[in-house]
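Entry:
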Amino acid sequence: DVFSFMDVYWTLGRPADASRLLDRTKAFEGKLDLKQQARLCNYLSEEAARQQKFEEAERHLLRGIALSKKAKDVVGQGKALVNLVGRVYGPTGRLSEAATQLRKALLLPDAPGQPAVKTTAAMNLGAVLRHMGKSKSALECFEHAFALARRHQLSVHAGLICNNMASFCYEQGRFLESL
């Protein structure tokens, strides 16, 4: 679908191509179902965040969350909550709000696709808590994220989590644990 093509363009470092596709897709917004409208909001937020238009990115994501709820799309809702943190609250230093949104993502019901979202949310919550100086809670989140990644065979996630845990332990002078 069109959203997959946008992912490819952004991954390949071709934001201009993704933006052109996004502009064309916006013209059909009224014809999209709720779930697709929510996805469109996610992509609009990506474009806004890349331009450091954080208020605009936040508006798109909050609308996307509302549309996902209405469509009963818990995976879309979880992705939007995680993206709200990664694109808006993290970069703007709104760490308390970031932690709140990630906790919401972790409390969403299970559904196909949710393990990756919840694993990412747990890892990112660990990172947020780490930046807030809540070391014990941060490590608990990283450990929880790692357990989720292993349980659901999310090897790329497991690697990212291990990297977070290693740098966290290293920063605390726990050099042997960081290995």
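The longest helix spans residues 114-131.
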